[in-house]
Each structure stands twice: as C-alpha cells, then as structure tokens.
Design a protein that fits this description.
The complex is a heterodimer of chains A (about 280) and B (about 170). Chain A contains six helices and 13 strands. In chain A, strand 7 and strand 8 form a beta hairpin. The longest helix of chain A is centred in the first third of the chain and has 20 residues. The chains are: A alpha+beta (about 280), B mainly alpha (about 170). At the A-B interface, helix 2, helix 3 and helix 4 of A face helix 1, helix 3, helix 4 and helix 5 of B. Chain B: Belongs to the MreD family.
Amino acid sequence: MRSLIRYLLKNHAFVLFVLLEGFALTMVFNYNSFQKATYLNSASRLTGTVYNMFHSVTGYFGLAKINRELAGENARLRSLLENQPGYFLSPDSTSSTQLQNDSVFRFITAEVINNSVNRPLNYLTLNKGRKQGIKPDMGIISNRGIVGVVGQVSESYAMGLSVLNQRWSVSAKVKKNGYYGSLMWNGTDYRYATLAEIPLHVDVAIGDTVVTSGYSSIFPEGILVGTISDFTRPDGENYYAIKVKLFVDFKSISHVEVVENTDRQEIDELDKTLKNDRQAN
Amino acid sequence: MIGRLIKYGVMFVVLVLMQVLVLNQVQLSGYINPFIYVLFIMLLPVSTPRYLLLILGFLIGFVVDIFSNSLGIHAAATVFIAFVRPFVISSISTREEDRNEYPGLRQNKFSWFLSYTAIMVLLHHFVLFYLEYFTFSHFFLTFLRVLLSSVFSIFIIVLSQFIIFRE
C-alpha cells in the first residue's frame, strides 16, 4: 500500500494527466448527458452575456444589409397578402398566424449572437430564452428558410443546433411531387446539405425546390430549404444521393424567428400513444 | 507572486475572449480555424509545477469548450499539450544555457520559439481536430484542416509575441 502511494506521488503528473484526460474524454463521448446541463453551453448566463455584449457592438456593422433584407421581406409579404382574396389585415399586430388549417404556429423573433459554420457540429446562440417563451425543440427559421432547432434554453438565452450539425436531421420533401426524405449535413461545405431516402423512381431534376415536409411538429409545412444542385444514383442502393444548395447563408445569419407549434403537446402525446400501442402488439 | 497571478489571469481572460469572440468567427474557406489560446499554456514559466500546468490546461480548454458547445474536446487537447510540454521544451533545448525560465519570444531565440510554437500547436490541433471529427473516413480532409489551421495559428501566435505579449 505504501509503495503504491509512493508510486502515485512520484508519478503524480502522469496520474493527474490520466484523470483529467479521462474526464475530458468522458464529456466528449457522453455529450448528451452533459449537454443537458444548461450551464455548460453557450446558452448559460455567463457565455450568453459575453456574446450579447460583443454582439451589441458588432451588430451595428450589418445594419444596412439587415434593413435591405427586411424591406425585401416586407414587400414579399405584402404582395402575398394583396393576392389573398378575402383576407383582411387586422389593425392589431397579433403574432399568431394560421398557416395551416389544423395547426397554429407562433413566431418569436430573435437575434443570433454567436454562430459557427466550420465545425462538424455547429451551434448558434440566440439572445432570447425561457422568459420570452422559447422552449427546447422549437424550430428556428429566417426569412430565407430553415436554420435549425432550439437545443438548450436558459433564462434569457437559447442554444440552437443549426442545419450544419451532424447530430441533427430534418424531414424535407421535393416540392413538386411531395416525396420526402431526411435532410442532413455531411460536415464539409456550409452551403450544401444532403437529402437522403428519396427512392430512385421519383422524378427529380437539378433546380427543384426542397421544402420542409411538415411531418415533424417542429416546422410548419413548406418552409424553404434549398434547391437541388446535383444528384447521383449510388451503385446498389435504392435511393438517390441528392445535394441541396441551402437558401440560408449561414455565414451571414443575423435575425431569425423561433417557431412554436401550439399543438405540439397534443401531437407528441398522440405519437406516444401510437408508439405504446405498437409495443403492446 | 501577486503580480504574476494577475498577469497570467489577465492573459487567460484576454486569450479566451480573443478566441471565442474573434477567431472562432473568422471562417476562412471553411477549413481554417486558428486556435491561439494554446499560447497561455506555452507561456507559463518553465518551473511551473506539472500538476498546476495540467490543471490550468484543463481549465482553459474547458472554458473554451463551454463557449463553443464542444464539451470536452478542447479540454482533452489542452491537457494533452500541458502534459507533453516539459518533454517538448527539454527536447528542443539542446544545451543547458539555452533554457530560459520564460518560454516567450523575447527571452529566447527566434528559431527556438518558432519550433516550440510549431510543435505545441501541431500536437494541439491534431488531438483537437481528430477528436472533433472522430472518424477516419475524412482522414486526409481532417489532416488538411490540421495543417492549414496550424499554419495560421503559428503565424498569429508569433505575430502576437511581437505586438502585445511583451513585458
């Protein structure tokens, strides 16, 4: 026993190295259980405040571009509104929008205060959190298309997984014929993502638009994703490998909207009962 | 003692903020992401006890991890280079008189500091990038990222020694 202690004391650097390295690697490979701790990611109060302070300075540099984009979006929305017969604009600017007949989506605007595009797992930090009604698993979209999903929420900040995160995929469909697959990112180029699981008999062409399918309760149906830029038929597989050029420029993303599905709880409960039924049989 | 504590404390904070607010936002071509907070571990005095070196290494990696949502990856890389630092220093210092208490550029020859920076940065980036991608399917692509990012990190670290971190 004494010789063991003497050995440990003599090699304390190595023992400490093994301990710390082991702890670090445990965190890497058990990312789920550790990521759940909101104080250990960029949504925590300290990191959120630092990013927010920095953003309050740098945010001014992009104002001209943001204004241009907002004006463009206003014009687009107005033209949509004018072409909708029988739609009247209520003077009260309520944030509820009836996008589909069966589910109501609510939008909360937020600013991106931290973002990355060149890691294999990219995250963004938003300047709104639980206080403003943001909850985990809400969708994040911008005026050009989908951006990601909320992961962790603290009191006044939220951390989101962007489309450019290999731990997340979203259900998307080819707009013209409605065939759906899952959209993933392969970790190389921030402008492109991959649409998988589209069977070979489906007619796809370069330039086709890809939109969200609405099969998950995160996003409304028909939010823009990107256009097909290339597709191949891998040998011996029944599915296309489709390369999608994303509409959202993740390098210059600044203002986003967080989507809340107010029927979400009901949908999830239904899903759960279905799953339980399947297990019972 | 207190002065030294303040000096290294300020250096810790400045390097972490530089890293997460400026360099993590620099996204050149999607391949290059320089990491300069390695400098903190590099510049600690040579006589720093090894356990302190390891703990400080873990700490700075952990803080960068929290900011960049990559729990454990930076910490593993920094603990590794904190562990190998004494071996690196003794292997590149040929004669006893070459060794200086402060491994900065001002106290040492340029060629010594350059090779010290290059070895430390390359080791750090290797561990970091391969842990981050954790797949050998992109072996050469990751290798390219390591090399390109290392060149940038080394350049910035050497440059910073000329500009700010002079006593």
